Task: structure prediction
Amino acid sequence: MIHSSRWHRNIQRMSAHEVGPTELIRPGLRIAVGIPTAGRRLILADTLAVLARQTRFPEAVLICPAASDDFDASQAAKLPFPVQIVQGSRGLPMQRNAILCAAQQFDVVMFFDDDFFPEPTYLAELEDCLVANPAVLVATGRTLADDIKGPGLTAGEARAVLASFVPSEAAMPLIDQYNAYGCNMAVRLAPVLAHGLRFDENLPFYAWAEDVDFSRQLAAYGQIVKNPRMTGVHLGVKNGRTSGLRYGYSQIANPYYLWRKGTVHAGGVASQMIRNVLANIIKSFNPEPWIDRRGRAFGNLLGLSDFFRGRLDPRRILNL
Result:
């Protein structure tokens, strides 16, 4: 039976001993938080400040910036957990892979987007979940608010959502998932290292669907679940993302590539492509101010053109 055990967490808390300023790191799983980031220095600072309010600290936070000025290194001294800067090439899969390589001494990597604010018990709930359910290899949480399709939440708005949230004491079973949500995705490292799994670097820049592909690679060895007790807010910050043209091309090229690779189903790919194209074309007549619908629509059409010409490739956005 899959479950998230509050009993187990309480036993661990009673047996934990005092170890000074890092007493919130408990014996058990060694958890590293991994944060790939690009062009969001200020919001990353806010995210780290929120992370410092966890009831269970990570053993380390691994930050992979796309550029040297994407992280204020002076902030590290103010945080209650070790921070390590990881060097990696620009692009979400490359940065995630750099974090995986740097995290081999840990049991779990908890990937957070640089604009995801975890609720204070998030990592404690994650540890309880994975200890109680050894077959779970990938776990994702529940978003209390997610403005990825809107203009994006401010840090103040996200903090207000967290402040108003009251965790439930009722039983909340885990839910099987096809894939984890990349903005908050925990991964057990043992099967990743044993099978040489990596995020697909043929999906450049913002990547789009790299979380689906990686989840499906791990699905061959264990379970992928959503734990409703792991909660947080995804701000959906718009700066630091790829252009509308590139994003639109990726909406066509990436699902097709993953279908040919065998990690997603043909039916899902076709319906997703159709939804994306229709949404971008229809909304391009009255676009949201925060979305480049015309750029996305043009990227969709360029992708479809390349499909019919037999040269559709996710890496083509490198030249767009």
